[in-house]
Amino acid sequence: MKKWNLIVDVAECTNCNLCALATQDEYSGNEWPGVAAEMPRHGHRWIDIKRKERGQVPQVDVAYLPVMCQHCDDAPCMKVAKDGAVTKRADGIVIIDPVKARGQKQIVEACPFDAVFWNEEKQLPQAWPFDAHLLDAGWKEPRAATACPTGAIRAVNVEDEEMTAIRARDGLEQLKPEAGVKPRVWYRNLYRYTKCMVAGTVAATIDGQEECIEGAAVTLRRGDATVGTATTDAFGDFRIDRLEPDSGTYALTIEKEGFPARTLDVAVTDSITIGTVTL
To answer: Deepest of 8, 105, 249, 261, by most Cβ within 10 A of its Cβ?
Structure first.
């Protein structure tokens, strides 16, 4: 049977917030029986765009991560809900019943993604329901996907076997895989938010002037193992990405024909811009 999945490309999200605004427009002031009660005008972010800056001036990378209900196959909210207040449809969508869930604040606390919000006025837990009412009415995708101008968010309705193939082909990952909840929201280029980078600039003094060095080979090693490589661009800049946070000290070697090679130690706790290295 076909089931709904959402694919979010972190590299394509520009923080325009149109997905969040479309969601607020759909639910703020509107009741959708069996799917969602009215969304409060303030305080709820059913699609929340999180921001992370990596590196330091002059090389800074900013990533945006849309987070919403992950529509987990092994949803913790379902396990703590009483009286069938949270259900999973046959098409994979998780629904917090806007009547049965009243008063059940434990549903909010159970979500490992902080994607369930508490409506104080209605005493009701609420989350993004994948626009189930629109899909039931014939929409091909939820509003968040149709509103996204860069294609960073898209929905697919496929069988699990096909989704497995898509995940392998596109390198899709889960958010917080350690939670073990089998989400149906998948992320591409998630490293932009979860991993670290080492960046810098290579220069040399030529005829009394400091010049950027293009085409220098940069190698990052730990012991005898090469962890990453890069080549400096026309501005002498380089970046080596996908490093684990708090992963320790690496040896960074810079080589360019006609100049002596340089090696320096780089400690990676978070993303770091090491500045200008002069050959």
So the answer is: 8
**Which tens digit of pLDDT belongs to each residue from 105-145?**
999 999 999 999 999 999 999 999 999 999 999 999 999 99
Residue 183 pLDDT: 98
Question: Contact, 181 vs 75, CB < 8 A?
Answer: yes
Rg of the chain on CA atoms, in Å: 23
Closest residue by Cα to residue 85 from 101, 105, 99, 103: 101
What is residue 196's three-state secondary structure? strand
From 3.30.360.10, 3.30.70.20, 3.20.20.70, 3.10.530.10, which CATH number describes the 3-193 domain?
3.30.70.20
State how far the Cα of 77 lies from the Cα of 90, in Å rounded to an integer: 17
Q: Would you say residue 39 has pLDDT above 90?
A: yes
Residue 203 pairs with which residues in a beta bridge? Answer: 212, 278
Please give the CATH number for the structural domain made up of 196-278.
Answer: 2.60.40.10
In 3-state terms, what secondary structure has residue 164? helix
pLDDT, tens digit, for every residue of 13-34?
999 999 999 999 999 999 999 9
State both tokens at 201.
Answer: 């600039």
Nearest to 144 by CA among 157, 129, 158, 159: 129
- The domain segmentation of the chain, as residue ranges, is 3-193, 196-278
